[in-house]
# Entry
Amino acid sequence: METIGRYRVTGRLGRGGMATVYKALAPVTGRLVAIKLLRPRDVLLDLVGEEQLRRTFLDEARIMGGLNHPHLARILDCDSHEGRPFFVLEYYAHSLGTFIGEAYRAESPSRPVSVARARHYLRQALLGLERLHFAGIVHRDIKPYNLMITGDDRIKIIDFGLSRVRGEESGEGGRPPGMQVGSPFYAAPEQNSDPQGVDGRADLYSVAVMALRMLTGRLFVHRQELVALLDEVQATRGKRWREWLAQGLARSPQERFADSREMRLALDGLPIAEGHGGQAPGGEAWPSATLRREPRRILYKEIRAELGLDDLLRPRPYCRPRLVEAGPQTMLDQTTGLVWQCLGAGFLLDWRQAEQYVEQVNQRGEGGCRSWRLPTCEELRTVLPSPWEGAGEGRRLFDPSLHWLWSCDPSTSRQAWSADVVEGFFERLDRDATASVCLVHDGEKGQGMV
# Structure
């Protein structure tokens, strides 16, 4: 498919039971957008019927189009293509699902994240739900892949296809009776027995499941597993975190928080514990004597062996750079002899623009050097911070405002490797997505000093 309406398609982002989502360029401006096109799978078409699916799809567009909030995705346009409706959304390269490394099998372990980062994202999700619930809308499918993360680290709730509007009834004008409401593991218990009767407290249950997963890296199937995970949280994060999670995960809606505002205010009062959840990846020490300087294509299936990463693309173990100040906003790693920018460009760039930034920095001879370059994944690995260790040891190289950082290593014709310099792992990004750019050079051993 080359075009959808006036938009030029550049790739497919994913497909669900009801619709396919494409990446595309807007006419005239060339803005990168996401297009959701109604293309139901045959099994759903047979079960529900085309007209009902069309109504449900347009209901989603109507709900999203009627809301304006910093943590709810916006609809930019709505039209039809060859008789099928579509709507246009802002494009985001990250989701909470990719951030924690949730796999196709959702029950597989994921990356536990720091309490500070978990609270940062959970708080924004609850703010978005406050606006939804005020409008009488229950999302009913809150999960990591329905929480997008913007380049400047803001949560945007998407996918309102299963939302229920206050006063809506099942059947005609409501959600299709044959559709599963909610995602396994994340859906509140009452969504199985009475999906049309749930209120906003069902979404709060889903938020609590995500919170538990972010802190422990695991989901639970049985209540016995939940008790063990709550015990783990209490041991690593304290009793108050356990109590907050237990209230959000109560089987009865009446025992949960009364609303999303109450849950958010209780979250705000929780302590930010030191350290990190889960178990640090082990392994052999990383040899840093010889590091690759030239770009190299690394396939997804190769990167674990190439860099010594675990299944969740984290170094095992993390390196221990010896960092000293080299100049304004630059640091020297005495272990490798590499000099790094700490803040870099100071704004987000796509992969092509990152190369343009390299050229400009070298043209002006920043720091008396004309041999700045994008780092390889090998080089980034040597300075990637360990989330299991505090920042007080002087090991944090990059400015706290930075999150994802481009490497020079491509993965496919459309993707390149980046590093999360907050939580310490590698991730593939579309080359037309944006990330921060911090350059490196070989210090006094390098060429091109001016």
